């Protein structure tokens, strides 16, 4: 290798055979054209750039499973709930049973002969305040989760949570009945809390919201708190599976995990009905 002639400070500190009169703006060392990194003012050497990058706080990227920011599934679910409520209201009036009530309400005692009611009841409401609360909550949390998880994953989360709410009622209060999207909504609460914690965000607020709503279910009579608990646990479980299988190569494992949760709920239902 050729040796520099003259003042050694006039040669690149990384390439002693290359003469340069350009200095790094941070450390003052001479850098050749190959080593220069353009800065806001002047140039810097690679070492200074590396050190500067280490000092920049790392920002967590939003959790993204799906593509785009549209939320058609959330709005479709809201529309179905509204239409069912409207039909029931127009045919029988408010605060009464009605045609839709007779068709869709879930009665655990009838699970063996009409198991589909465990899902249809999730879309049935008979009171204004009930549906307004559920639709408002779905509008807030549903859109955020659908944007993060994607349409198919969000739909699976919602339906599994709603089904889990019915399963919990079957297990804990088999003599009663249940209707409403509250189990599915609490599933969104559980999923959102898990996602927030995974992203390192402040989950205190969502935990407070969940705690208050659970408390209301225990305090006020006539509220199926069993469905709330079942939906909450199922939603958290689905979110945990999704977070653990985020990589594209884990897609099959992710599907297997979600299907596994659904199969477990179905098996629990079948075994409970047979045992009674």
UniProtKB/TrEMBL annotation:
Record-annotated membrane-spanning stretches: 73-102, 122-142, 154-172, 178-195, 202-221, 227-244, 256-275
One GO BP: proteolysis
Single GO molecular function: serine-type endopeptidase activity
UniProt keyword annotations, A-Z: Hydrolase, Membrane, Protease, Transmembrane, Transmembrane helix
Pfam families xrefs: Rhomboid
GO CC annotation, single: membrane
Compartment(s) of residence: Membrane
Membrane topology summary: Multi-pass membrane protein
Gene3D superfamilies for this protein: Rhomboid-like (1.20.1540.10)
Main location per the UniProt record: membrane
Residues in Peptidase S54 rhomboid domain copies: 114-243
Family: Belongs to the peptidase S54 family.
Protein name per the record: Rhomboid family intramembrane serine protease
Species of origin: Arenivirga flava
